[in-house]
Amino acid sequence: MDTRYHVSASRMTIVAHLFGITALILLIAWLLHYRGGLDYESNNPDRVFNVHPFLMFFGLIFIVGEAMMTYKTIPAEHNVQKFIHMVLQLIGIILGIIGLCAVFKFHDMINVSDVYSLHSWLGITAICLFCLQWVFGFFAFVAPKASSPTRMKFMAIHICVGRALLYMAICAALTGLMEKATFLQLGPNQREFRLINFTGLAILLFGIFVDLSVTLAHYVY
Predict the structure, then answer these.
(1) What is this structure's pTM?
(2) In the chain, how many H helices and how many E strands?
(3) CA distances from 184 to 50, 76, 134, 178 (A)
(4) Is the pLDDT at 193 greater than 50, yes or no?
């Protein structure tokens, strides 16, 4: 392994973790302090809705990002790293689906139409493609394994598609934050509005540094 790339990827991974944890803290602070908390089983529609942004970020962005960096963060054999990568991706997808169910439940509670905005189109498309990516990856690399030449060819596609889907999920998150800020009619000088902006910025930077870590890392097929 080229030492320069190993060091660079490791540094990118550390920075990615810092921005990911920052985004998670800011998001939780926003939902608890300004939006009244989150509870999927609540009779309060707003608390049901709050499950949506939390799980969509935590599942489809944070956990998926961690899965993408598994090969840099887990000091284990390649097969163990692969298994953890697969499990984290599956957990992220499941959490994302629950988050999607939360927003459908919210819309039912307040009698609002579903899937009408760019944000919703991006989010649902991202979840569907993440599911397909996981299924194809499972059959190509886990059970039953494809031949070694096939795996080598498919790996490049698998990585590129995964990176693209992470950015798609981030775009969905950022458009969702701005959509919510618009619905709340927040002014530019309000603290909540600035908190939402900083949360979105941290999410974007997390994705960028995850991508850099993946790009600089050396993978064993």
Answers:
(1) 0.91
(2) 8, 0
(3) 14, 47, 36, 10
(4) yes
